[in-house]
Design brief:
Number of strands: 10
Low-confidence stretches: none
Helix content: 25-40%
Shape: globular
CATH superfamily of the largest domain: P-loop containing nucleotide triphosphate hydrolases
Mean pLDDT: 91
Bound molecules: adenosine-5'-triphosphate, magnesium ion
Number of helices: 10
CATH architecture of the largest domain: 3-Layer(aba) Sandwich
CATH class of the largest domain: Alpha Beta
Length: 248
């Protein structure tokens, strides 16, 4: 369970997050939805202890995130950074194996884990002997996800894990990931600016704007009982135009 209480984070006096609170129940997926610069990535970084809040606190599975507890917190969390961030000089398999290597796993155990993860994200094992530059964007994102899952952490923080994918691959991966998170019982915070994605993934959603929470709830709450006109505007901005729905 992740509890964010009254968190404010300023950069050069300007708040990137302003009194943000949210709770993610264990084993559920919570979506951070919001436009560019709304504070989504900053919030993930605070959960990871990569930055410290100016006010408020973050508690992960009962442990308050501080510089002292950061290493312990990070052991519990798999993180997929915005843009993937694979090491280009390593093969995909070596990228996935890094966390296990760092823990001193034997080669055999690591290889078995890599193979199991490839099956989980439905990526052919042979692709993993390539370097990231030789993979498509969707394959790279699967590899990033495999690396985050490598040590089977109870918590996953995913920053736009499906950005820059074609719509068909994106929809396929969304379906696979929903299944994976449910099967594995992960506590997930997923960042997106994509309304469809928020609908598919999020048991609960926080809509952020300018570092503040505009509304929290289920997709139905946001759609049916919008807290402000901005909520409706945000949800509608990505809906197909009415003329188009006649063709669908
Ligand atoms: N290290 C930093 N130093 C200074 N300002 C920062 C830093 N990190 C974030 N910011 C600022 O904080 C605000 C929130 O940034 P953040 O990266 O959290 O947005 P975001 O919601 O993830 O946006 P995007 O959808 O574009 O990734 C922005 O105005 C950004 O410029
Ligand atoms: Mg971001």
């Amino acid at each position: 369970m992740i509890v964010v209480s009254g968190v404010t984070k300023r950069f050069g006096g300007r708040p990137a997050l302003d009194g943000v609170s949210l709770t993610v129940e264990a084993g559920t997926t919570h979506v951070l939805l919001g436009g560019s610069g709304s504070g989504k990535s900053t919030l993930l970084r605070l959960v990871l202890g990569l930055a410290q809040p100016d006010a408020g606190e973050v508690v992960v599975d009962g442990v308050r995130v501080t510089p002292g507890s950061r290493a312990e917190i990070q052991r519990r969390i798999g993180y997929v950074v915005q843009e993937g961030a694979l090491y280009p000089h390593l093969t995909a398999a070596e990228n996935v194996a890094l966390p296990a290597r760092a823990r001193g796993w034997q080669a055999e155990r690591t290889e078995a884990r890599v193979t199991a993860l490839a099956r989980l994200v439905e990526l052919e094992r042979s692709w993993l002997d390539r370097h990231p530059a030789q993979l498509s964007g969707g394959q790279r994102q699967r590899v990033g996800l495999m690396r985050a899952l490598a040590l089977d952490p109870p918590v996953l923080l995913l920053d736009e894990p499906l950005g820059a994918l074609d719509p068909i691959t994106r929809a396929e991966l969304q379906t696979q990931l929903v299944r994976i998170f449910r099967e594995l019982g992960k506590t997930v915070v997923l960042v997106t600016h994509d309304v469809r994605e928020a609908f598919v993934f999020g048991r609960t959603i926080t809509l952020l704007e300018g570092g503040r929470v505009v509304q929290q709830g289920t997709f139905a709450d946001l759609a049916r009982r919008p807290a402000t006109p901005l909520v409706t505007e945000f949800l509608r901005a990505q809906a197909p135009p009415p003329e188009m729905t006649a063709y669908l």
